[in-house]
From TrEMBL:
It comes from Desulforhopalus singaporensis. The lineage of its organism: Bacteria, Pseudomonadati, Thermodesulfobacteriota, Desulfobulbia, Desulfobulbales. This is Type II secretion system protein N. InterPro entries: T2SS_GspN_Lepto. It comes from the Bacteria.
């Protein structure tokens, strides 16, 4: 029985691909017109100002690859963009027009997911979301998202669901990990102008433009700590409000490399009557503010 099913599935995929290729060749399929149609459809679906695709190609037996996919979104007087080197779309199992597997290359890393579509209910759901080794430096250099240097590798996993008419008003949960990161600070933190992080991790819950951050923790040569709070988004990138609190614990590396500041840190620890320093983060994602809690 299993062998018969496998054989039938293989034959169906083969015939689908063969028929598709023959039909497109016969009618001399206008690739440029199809590319324009895809660009407009994706822009409308994702509420972007513009969508650009360098090339579209067919993948046997029933997939398509988009090369050089760029989404452009206005941000006040400026323009934001998001680029994928490639995006592969293929049917997710037997639900040909209701389930699709996505496989993308972006910023030297990869991301995969399955999208489930409810056409009647105008709903969508992303499951099995997973991102690996996405280079934050490449992302920031290319998109110019943050006015400071940042590096490291980003990993993430989770799920997300929403409505086509308001795609960013949905709900999702996930986990984020950053490894081997360095973040340039706008203002010195305990005299540090560059924060190096061996690993940072947190759980995320997004609902209606409010991102809750829980069980956050990070460790590095100079500092380790924990954090939690929320980030509220107001529609355009850069328009956000941070409300994050946490604790910092200076490490042996900090005291060794910064002996002149060691006494100040010890005085602060005595002041807070603890082995850690409480902190608060406000401002926005693009321009955060940081202060030790009173």
């Amino acid at each position: 029985m299993m062998r018969a099913l496998f054989s039938m599935r293989t034959v169906l995929f083969f015939l689908y691909g063969l028929v598709l290729v023959i039909v497109l060749a016969y009618v001399r399929f206008p690739a440029d017109d199809f590319k324009t149609y895809c660009e407009k459809s994706l822009a409308d679906l994702l509420q972007a100002k513009e969508c650009r695709i360098m090339e579209i190609s067919y993948l046997f037996p029933a997939g398509v690859r988009l090369q050089g996919l760029t989404l452009v979104q206005p941000n006040g007087g400026a323009v934001d963009s998001f680029t994928m080197q490639s995006l592969k779309i293929s049917p997710g199992g037997w639900n040909f027009w209701r389930s699709f597997d996505l496989d993308t290359s972006l910023y030297e890393g990869t991301a995969t997911a399955r999208i489930m579509l409810d056409w009647k209910g105008n709903l969508f759901q992303f499951t099995q979301i997973e991102g690996k080794e996405i280079e934050l430096a490449r992302w920031n250099d290319q998109e110019q998202s943050l006015p400071r240097k940042i590096s490291g590798l980003l990993f993430f996993s989770g799920r997300y669901s929403g409505n086509f008419s308001t795609p960013f008003e949905g709900e999702g949960k996930g986990n984020v990990i950053v490894q081997d990161s360095a973040i340039e600070l706008q203002r010195p933190l305990l005299t540090l102008s560059l924060l190096t992080i061996t690993e940072a991790e947190s759980n995320l819950h997004y609902r209606g433009r409010l991102l809750s951050v829980t069980e956050g923790k990070f460790s590095g040569r100079d500092l380790r700590g924990d954090f939690e709070g929320d980030i509220e988004f107001f529609g355009q990138k850069g328009r956000s409000a941070l409300n994050i609190t946490g604790n910092l614990v200076p490490q042996a590396g900090f005291f060794k490399d910064h002996p002149d500041e060691a006494e100040l840190v010890r005085e602060l620890l005595i002041r807070y009557n603890a082995h850690q320093l409480p902190f608060e983060m406000g401002g926005s994602v693009v321009r955060p503010t940081f202060s030790l809690a009173e």
